[in-house]
Design goal:
mainly alpha, Growth Hormone, Chain: A, 17 helices, globular
Length: 491
């Protein structure tokens, strides 16, 4: 006999582990595609030979993000059509299909193409991928505030999203190095990167389908067809976002994390190629740094209930600062010992990151509620899309900034490809000062990320446990009053 589904007072399926696992699958799907972004710098510098051209192009395509993210967010917010299940889920379904194609377009392996063709391939591929990623990711982030309005449930969703993100990063992180590198553990195989991108896109689509089929929307506004809707003002929405301290603080922390960590990821790959001289173990080493996140995630719900999201995340930022400082301990004459120091420092750093990451998305859900509390408008799509835009801007600035610094430290074109163009041959750096310079750069970038997280969470984000309880209580009163007025009008 099939187990009877338990319903809440509104006739919706009660919140359970099923919701958390389904939500985690969504971020797993996103990261099946997004995790490959860390390989872009290596692919376009070491295979396609763009070198510093890549840094410039990466910043340029972020202009598309400036239009893409808020535009799609406003389209979603102003969409008043009826959907079979939910408009957010419908957008996610469409975006997940496009990611299969978009992800692969970013890694078309034509190293012999002329420079102008490479530029066109990169920009076109990135724009297509980014558009579909936004179509899937913006409504996915907005779903958290609609699945449940209970703080503990949101903390659980955020924690499980972190698990989905972590698994989505770990799988490519561990498996891809064994697929995309040659047997020497140093040389990148461009054709295999393209194949891997296709596979990741298909796996992401499967994850999204699982999420869509197992998501229950419990907080949904009624769409009144035929009734005139208030005109959407994008400039007012932008102003509201800038006045939304929780959204700004959480966004600053996320930007710090991505500027430092995405930049560091670019340098780390080269460090394992030239300093540790084994890129294939890079994923395994980085996987160990995920252990603290796995340990903390099951405790997140209870600790959030007891201490509060802001309070926990600030402690996490301080812990990450300590880990970032520890990364400066290097022993270039003994790389085996250095690898041990590196792993230990990463464990400390990741403990702090694990504390923050498990509550970061719940903090954005609260920021959406804060927008409603202060302005009377929820604007889920706009608040989340602007947050997503600044995150993605940081994801572009980080690697571009890191590559510029890496060039100053000696990571420049040092060989000629089949088309007679200069490209980066990492084997020629082995045994020089360049790997040591990059090893120090990695530590500096991680430290910058931790400091920016602390500033955003401790000094800007203002929804501590007490304030959050007050906000939720007042919003609940407003909703009850609004429902009473609606009932009276319809009587």
């Amino acid at each position: 006999m099939a187990k009877q589904v338990q319903l809440d007072a509104n006739g919706k399926r009660k919140f359970s582990i099923r919701d958390s696992v389904a939500y985690a699958a969504g971020d797993l799907g996103c990261n099946m595609s997004f995790a490959l972004k860390g390989t872009m710098a290596l692919f376009w510098t070491q295979v396609m030979g763009l070198s510093l051209w890549y840094s410039l192009l990466l910043v340029i395509v972020q202009v598309w993000d400036a239009i893409n993210d808020p535009l799609i967010g406003t389209i979603i917010d102003s969409d008043r059509r009826h959907y079979k299940r939910n408009k957010f889920l419908s957008y996610i379904w469409f975006g997940s299909i496009g990611l299969i194609v978009g992800g692969a377009l970013c890694f078309l392996p034509f190293p012999g193409a002329p420079l102008w063709a490479k530029i066109v391939i990169f920009i076109a591929g990135y724009v297509v991928w980014d558009a579909f990623y936004t179509i899937a990711n913006v409504p996915y982030g907005s779903l958290l505030s609609l699945i449940s309005k209970e703080p503990a449930d949101r903390a659980s969703l955020s924690a499980w999203r972190s698990i989905g993100s972590m698994v989505g990063n770990m799988l490519p992180m561990v498996i891809l190095p064994f697929i995309i590198y040659e047997e020497d553990g140093v040389t990148l195989n461009g054709n295999m990167v393209f194949v891997a991108a296709l596979i990741m896109g298909v796996l992401g689509f499967i994850c999204f389908q699982f999420m869509i089929r197992n998501t229950e929307i419990r907080v949904e506004e009624e769409i009144k067809v035929g009734e005139e809707q208030p005109k959407f003002n994008v400039f007012e929405a932008l102003k509201n976002f800038c006045l939304n301290r929780p959204a700004v603080g959480a966004t600053l922390a996320a930007m710090g994390m991505f500027i430092g960590m995405q930049g560091a990821a670019t340098a780390v790959s080269v460090v394992f190629q030239t300093y540790f001289q084994n890129a294939q173990i890079s994923g395994i080493v980085q996987m160990f740094s995920m252990i603290p996140i796995l340990v903390f995630t099951p405790l997140a719900r209870k600790m959030v209930t007891k201490y509060g999201k802001k309070e926990l995340s600030v402690i996490g930022a301080i812990c990450s600062i300590c880990g970032g400082l520890a990364l400066f301990i290097i022993t270039p004459d003994n790389t085996a010992l250095d690898l041990v120091f590196y792993v230990i420092a990463q464990l400390i750093y990741s403990l702090g990151l694990g504390i923050y990451s498990t509550v970061s998305w719940a903090m954005m859900g609260d920021a959406i509620d804060y927008n409603e509390w202060k302005t009377g408008k929820r604007e889920e799509g706009v608040v989340y899309s602007l947050h997503s835009f600044f995150r993605k801007l940081a994801q572009g600035i980080g690697p571009a900034f890191a590559l510029v610094i890496m060039s100053w430290l000696g990571y420049v074109n040092n060989d000629i490809n089949e088309a007679g163009e200069a490209y980066i041959n990492v084997e020629k750096f082995i045994g020089t000062q360049v790997p040591i310079n990059l090893r120090v750069l990695v530590a500096a970038l991680f430290l910058v990320a931790a400091v920016m997280q602390f500033v955003g969470l401790a000094l800007v984000y203002n929804l501590d446990k007490k304030t959050l309880e007050k906000m939720n209580a007042e919003l609940a009163e407003r909703h009850v009053a609004a429902e009473a007025v609606e009932v009276a009008e319809n009587a």
